[in-house]
């Protein structure tokens, strides 16, 4: 089986496992993530952190984002511009939120576009080496590549539940490795 087909099978199985977590337990797990990382992620005032609003059965990292903002982070959210491109628009109090693709909402076109220093990255599966499987569109891989072309090297923290871990992710040259992953069990760092 080629890597792409294997990724599709892994994605489907891990998303089904995530979907099977009862909503109240997902919320409990999400709050645990905020407790584990809200005060311990390295953060200097003004650091730009890209989060996301949850869709489907994703972890709800809004409590974590609120903790990071309280510590001085500038927050932004990914916004889908087209099938190939996402940008990161600043999230400020009181700003109107608009539909931003994939069933989520975020800042509108009047919001400032930022280059994140840290990305909290949703995913469908991950392994103990920090390889991840996203949702299949490659948006984050391309966005991270664009940031690196600008000389930026954001810290990449995958956001998942423990049930999304697999023995091995079949990674390809274009796949971006995570620096860490945050689950309900804590923050696990893969690289320095």
Strand percentage lies at 15-25%
Strand order of the largest sheet: 3-2-1-6-9-10-11
Average pLDDT for all residues: 92
Low-confidence stretches: none
| Quantity of strands, as a count | 11
CATH superfamily: NagB/RpiA/CoA transferase-like
Head-to-tail CA distance between termini: 33 Å
Could you characterize the architecture of this molecule?
It contains four helices and eleven strands; from the N terminus they run H-H-E-H-E-E-E-E-E-E-E-H-E-E-E. With 192 residues, the chain is an alpha/beta fold. The chain has a single domain, classed as Rossmann fold. Helix 3 links the parallel strand 1 and strand 2. Helix 2 (23-37) runs parallel beside helix 3. The protein is globular and about 45 Å long. The model has no long low-confidence stretch (mean pLDDT 92). Its cofactor is Mg(2+). Its EC number is 6.3.3.2.
Write a brief structural summary.
The protein is α/β, with parallel strands linked by helices and 192 residues long. The protein has 4 helices and 11 strands. The strands form 3 sheets. Strands 3-2-1-6-9-10-11 form a 7-stranded mixed β-sheet, sandwiched between helices. Strands 4-5 form a two-stranded antiparallel ribbon.
Draw up the topology in text:
Layout: H1 3-19, H2 23-37, E1 48-50, H3 62-70, E2 74-80, E3 86-90, E4 97-101, E5 104-107, E6 118-122, E7 125-126, E8 132-133, H4 139-149, E9 155-159, E10 180-183, E11 186-189
Parallel strand pairs: 1-2, 1-6, 6-9, 9-10
Antiparallel strand pairs: 2-3, 4-5, 7-8, 10-11
Helix pairs in contact: 2-3
């Amino acid at each position: 089986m080629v890597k792409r087909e294997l990724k599709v099978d892994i994605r489907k199985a891990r998303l089904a496992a995530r979907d099977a977590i009862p909503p109240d337990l997902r919320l409990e797990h999400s709050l645990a993530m905020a407790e584990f990382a809200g005060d311990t992620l390295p953060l200097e005032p003004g650091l730009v952190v890209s989060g996301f609003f949850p869709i489907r059965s994703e972890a709800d990292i809004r409590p974590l984002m609120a903790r990071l903002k309280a510590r001085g982070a500038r927050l932004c959210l990914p916004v889908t511009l087209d099938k190939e491109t996402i940008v990161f628009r600043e999230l400020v109090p009181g700003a109107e939120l608009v539909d931003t693709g994939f069933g989520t909402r975020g800042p509108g076109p009047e919001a400032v576009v930022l280059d994140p220093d840290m990305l909290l990255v949703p995913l469908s599966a991950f392994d103990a080496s920090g390889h991840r499987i996203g949702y299949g569109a490659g948006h984050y891989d391309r966005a991270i590549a664009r940031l690196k072309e600008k000389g930026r090297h954001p810290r990449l923290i995958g956001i998942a539940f423990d049930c999304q871990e697999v023995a091995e992710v079949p990674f390809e040259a274009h796949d971006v490795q995570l620096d860490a992953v945050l689950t309900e069990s804590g923050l696990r760092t893969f690289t320095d």
